[in-house]
Design brief:
This protein is an alpha/beta fold and 223 residues long. It has one domain: Aldolase class I (TIM Barrel). It has helices at residues 16-21, 46-55, 69-72, 94-103, 119-123, 150-163, 180-185, 195-198, 203-214, and strands at 3-6, 29-34, 60-65, 81-87, 107-112, 130-134, 168-172, 190-193. It has an 8-stranded parallel β-sheet. Bound molecules: ribulose-5-phosphate (5RP) and cobalt (II) ion. The site of cobalt (II) ion (CO) has 6 residues, from strand 2.
Length: 223
C-alpha cells in the first residue's frame, strides 16, 4: 500500500495546526527532529512532537536526525507516534534500539544516509518495520532527488520478499510527482514530501497529486 507522508519541515511553524489540517488526507505526518550536530540544522524536539500528537489524528512518523539515538529515541515512542526512525550512522546498537522501540509499542525504522550501504541492514532486516533510504543528504528540505539511491531500494525490497516479511520502504528527499514514480518502481511505498507539499499554495491538492502519481499507470510494470 502506498503511503504519503508530508514533512512539516516546509510548513508554517507559526500556523502549524492549520497546516496540519491541510494534509488531513495524507496517511501520516513526518516530523524531522534535527539537533545541529548529526546534521547542520536545528528544528525541534520532544515537546513539539508531543504537542503535535495532541492536535493531529494522523499517524506520526518521527525522523530523528540526532546524535546518540540509543539514549534519546525511546522518549519519542509516545501515544500518537506510529514509527520512530533513527540513523544507522548515529546508532551504537541498532538491533537493540529497534527491539526496545517495538517493546514500547512503536514501529522501529532505520535510516541510511546516501553514503551508507545497505549491507548491515540487510543482515538484520527482520528487526525493522521500516527502512528509510535518504534520497538527499539529511539536514535540509528543497534538495534534489538522488536517483542513484534506487539500487538500495531494489536490494532491500528483494531481500524482504525473499524473507517473506512485510517491510515498509520509505524515501525522503526531493520527492515530487515526477520523482515519486521512480522510487515506487524501485520498491518504495512510503513517500515523504516537504517542499512538494508545503512549498505550494494548496498543500491538500499537492498531497492528492502525489497520491495520483503513486497510482500504477496502465500498462506499466510497477509493483
Ligand atoms: O529529512 C528531511 C531532510 O533531511 C526532510 O524530511 C526532507 O528533506 C523533506 O524535504 P523535501 O521533500 O523538500 O526534500
Ligand atoms: Co525526513
Amino acid at each position: 500500500m502506498v503511503r504519503i507522508h508530508p514533512s512539516i519541515l516546509s510548513a508554517d511553524f507559526v500556523n502549524l495546526e492549520r497546516d496540519l489540517e491541510r494534509i488531513a488526507s495524507a496517511d501520516g505526518v513526518h516530523l524531522d527532529v534535527m539537533d545541529a550536530h548529526f546534521v547542520p540544522n536545528l528544528t525541534f524536539g520532544l515537546p513539539m512532537v508531543q504537542r503535535i500528537a495532541e492536535v493531529t489524528s494522523l499517524p506520526i512518523d518521527v525522523h530523528l536526525m540526532i546524535d546518540d539515538p540509543d539514549t534519546w529515541a525511546l522518549q519519542y515512542a509516545i501515544d500518537g507516534v506510529d514509527s520512530v526512525t533513527f540513523h544507522a550512522e548515529a546508532t551504537r546498537d541498532a538491533v537493540a534500539l529497534a527491539r526496545e522501540l517495538r517493546a514500547r509499542g512503536a514501529r522501529a525504522a532505520i535510516a541510511l544516509k546516501p553514503g551508507t550501504a545497505v549491507d548491515d541492514v540487510l543482515e538484520h532486516l527482520r528487526e525493522f518495520d521500516m527502512v528509510l533510504v535518504m534520497t538527499v543528504e539529511p539536514g535540509f528540505g528543497g534538495q534534489s532527488f538522488m536517483p542513484e539511491m534506487m539500487p538500495k531500494l531494489q536490494e532491500l525490497r528483494g531481500r524482504a520478499d525473499e524473507l517473506g516479511i512485510e517491510l515498509a520502504l520509505q524515501v525522503d528527499g526531493g520527492i515530487t510527482a515526477d520523482t515519486l514514480p521512480i522510487a515506487a518502481a524501485a520498491g518504495a511505498d512510503v513517500f515523504v514530501a516537504g517542499s512538494a507539499v508545503y512549498g505550494h499554495a494548496d498543500p491538500a491538492e499537492r498531497t492528492h497529486a502525489l497520491r495520483l502519481a503513486a497510482a500504477p499507470q496502465p500498462g506499466s510494470l510497477d509493483r
